[in-house]
Amino acid sequence: MLTIGQLAAYAGVTVRAVRHYHHLGLLPEPERDDSGYRRYSARAVVDLIKIRTLAGAGVPLSQIGRMLDAGPSGFAEQIQRIDDHLRTEIERLENSRKQIAQLAAGDGLVVPPEVAHYLDRLRQLGVAEPIVAGERDGWILMSARWPDDVREIIPAKLAYLDDPQHIRVYRILSDLIGLDPADTRNDALLVELADLMAAAAEQAAAAGDADPDEMQQDNLTFDLMDALAVESDPRVERLFGLIRERGWARWTRLDRMPQ
User: Fold this and answer.
1) Whole-number pLDDT of residue 123
2) Which residue intervals define the domain HTH merR-type in the entry (predicted)?
């Protein structure tokens, strides 16, 4: 009947594809005739079209052989399994598309929308981008650990942005970013920063402000936030020391130094 070239052309595939299907055992390779050519039957054409159709629908080649050998019920069952897998994959890809779309929103990809709004407010206030980025990284750590608690404390954080003393903290941090670590002005700024942070901690403690219980009982995230700050700028070690001198064990949580 047909040569391999004619078979491939009729089924709409390449000769190379036909040979690949031979290699995988999906399409039997006929014996050579007396003239030395392999001749393909009408059944081979039908089988090749089935293989091409299933492969074009996304069925893995490793599964096509079993599907061709299965009866009607078995074929339908395997089709259903493939469809279920494709549905799951589509949902995964749709979620990935949503995440990729959030890249345009910047911070919204890695933190809750409430936190992204807070970070945008910092930018509107003129806070230096490296400081905003450091703040974002701290919120990433917190959001991964306590997503619900983070949403609860954001309103209070936003309210702080109406406090000139709180804004001054960010102004000093932004000024420090622009200074060489060896600049003599660093120490004065760090001292002022420690004073402001200690005063804010005293004010919050007096007002009864406290992190949710889940946060208070878990030190790991706060340890990571402190370490992240030190890794970002060695001057933070000096700041930590100044804050401890003022009676506070951390700058990220209301922890007083032991008496």
Assistant:
1) 92
2) 1-70
The pLDDT value recorded for residue 175 is 94
First to last CA, the chain: 97
Q: Residue 146 has what pLDDT?
A: 87
Taking residue 128's Cβ as centre, other Cβ atoms within 10 Å add up to 18
pLDDT of residue 84: 87
Q: 2-29 as b/e, with b when 16 or more CB fall inside 10 Å?
A: bebeebbeebebeeebbeebeeeebbee
pLDDT of residue 139: 92
Which stretches in the chain have pLDDT values below 50? Answer: none
Residue whose C-alpha is closest to residue 106's, from 117, 93, 96, 95: 117
Distances (CA, A) of 127 to 88, 195, 201: 43, 20, 21
The pTM score is: 0.58
Give the position of tokens 């949902």.
Answer: 91
What pLDDT score does 134 carry? Answer: 92
Q: Cα 8–11–15 angle (5° rounding)?
A: 20
